[in-house]
Specification:
Structural class: alpha/beta
Number of strands: 10
Low-confidence stretches: none
CATH architecture: Alpha-Beta Barrel
CATH superfamily: NADP-dependent oxidoreductase domain
Order of helices and strands: EEEHHEHEHEHEHEHEHHHEHHH
Number of domains: 1
CATH class: Alpha Beta
Shape: globular
CATH topology: TIM Barrel
Oligomer: single chain
Strand order of the largest sheet: 3-4-5-6-7-8-9-10
Distance between the termini: 25 Å
């Protein structure tokens, strides 16, 4: 397993991170993802560690906290062997302060996550989204205090707009506070908007991309193809999960899948492995979060590392997944002194 520095920090992370959204399965949304219990999770952690995958990503809202509890049970007795990544900001209760990036909510959220995970520190803590109602200074000063207290080691954000991230970095620099070294963002062969604004920003400011849903919300597993029914077990069969995910037209999806099938025939790799390997060759990408309902899926995803697509294969996938740029990016693209970093 290769390791990369996360953004401009000295923190090394494996190029693959295991996402624990499949752990717990307590709500309708997360049942569609998976219902892994502690026993099965322990086995999956075993497989990950054998392969050198040491980072595990969760969030307080995954299965109402059950994901963190299952992860905590699965790593019990081997905390020193793993890196824990988790997130908070979304609503976790009915109270007016049970949501957001306020000092009140973040301190409570971190303490609750520590308890569920069975640890006294979090290696990488991220805001799950941007809170426009809380002053950024309040959020960042709180995160800095938590870093200084040893509760968290590094901080990041997730699902931020470009200006959200840039303003936050500027405020951290102004006051000498801990800065975001990673941005957990949606990026896949069928979701390349990350490249337009966030990738250039992250290159300039040295913020590592922590990619979530690299298989396009479960659409690039190799099991979804033109003219074929959905697999019996798929998050696409859940209306709630399907509606919450990124929107993709069928024709665009199948155009990309056709290209993936061509490259699969050339390489002997699976569709999922090719989609993941393509991401690993993109600028700013530090680690990709992979999920798995079972050991077979996990081992297949682990096969995405240790080799590289050729330049011609990358160009073929680039062409198949390209979409018209929106303004101002189509205008900027015409100026040869302002190339997109792709």
């Amino acid at each position: 397993m290769d390791y990369r520095l996360l953004g401009g920090s000295g923190f090394s992370v494996p190029v693959l991170t295991f996402g624990t959204g499949t752990f717990g399965g307590k709500t309708e949304l997360f049942k569609a993802w998976g219902e892994t219990d502690v026993k099965e999770a322990t086995r999956l952690v075993d497989v990950c560690l054998e392969a050198g995958l040491t980072m595990f990503d969760s969030a307080d809202v995954y299965s109402d906290g059950a994901s963190e509890e299952v992860l905590g049970g699965a790593i019990k007795g081997r905390r020193d062997k793993v890196l824990i990544s988790t997130k908070a900001v979304f609503r976790t209760g009915a109270g007016p302060n049970d949501v957001g990036a306020s000092r009140f909510h973040l301190v409570n959220a971190v303490e609750s996550s520590l308890r569920r995970l069975g640890t006294d520190y979090i290696d990488f803590f991220q805001l799950h989204g941007f809170d426009a109602l809380t002053p950024i200074e309040e959020t960042l000063s709180t995160l800095d205090e938590l870093v200084r207290a040893g509760k968290i080691r590094y901080i990041g954000c997730s699902n931020f707009s470009g200006w959200h991230l840039m303003k936050s970095l500027a405020i951290s620099e102004k006051y000498g506070w801990a800065r975001y070294v990673g941005h957990q963002a949606y990026y896949s062969l069928i979701g390349r908007e990350y490249e337009w604004e966030l990738m250039p920003l992250s290159l300039d400011q040295k913020v590592g991309a922590v990619v979530w849903s690299p298989l396009g919300w479960g659409r690039l597993t190799g099991k979804i193809r033109r003219g074929q029914p959905l697999p019996e077990v798929s998050r696409q069969r859940s209306a709630l999960s399907h509606e919450m995910g990124p929107k993709v037209t069928e024709e665009y999806l199948f155009k990309v899948v056709d290209a993936l099938d061509e490259v699969a025939a050339e390489t002997g790799k699976t569709v999922a492995q090719i989609a993941l390997n393509w991401l690993l060759q993109r600028p700013t990408v530090a680690t990709i979060i992979i999920g798995a309902r079972n050991e077979q899926q996990l081992r297949d995803n682990l096969g995405a590392v240790g080799w590289n697509l050729t330049a011609d294969q990358v160009r073929k996938l680039d062409a198949a997944s390209a979409v018209p740029l929106i303004y101002p990016y189509w205008h900027q693209e015409k100026f040869d002194r302002n190339p997109l970093p792709i």
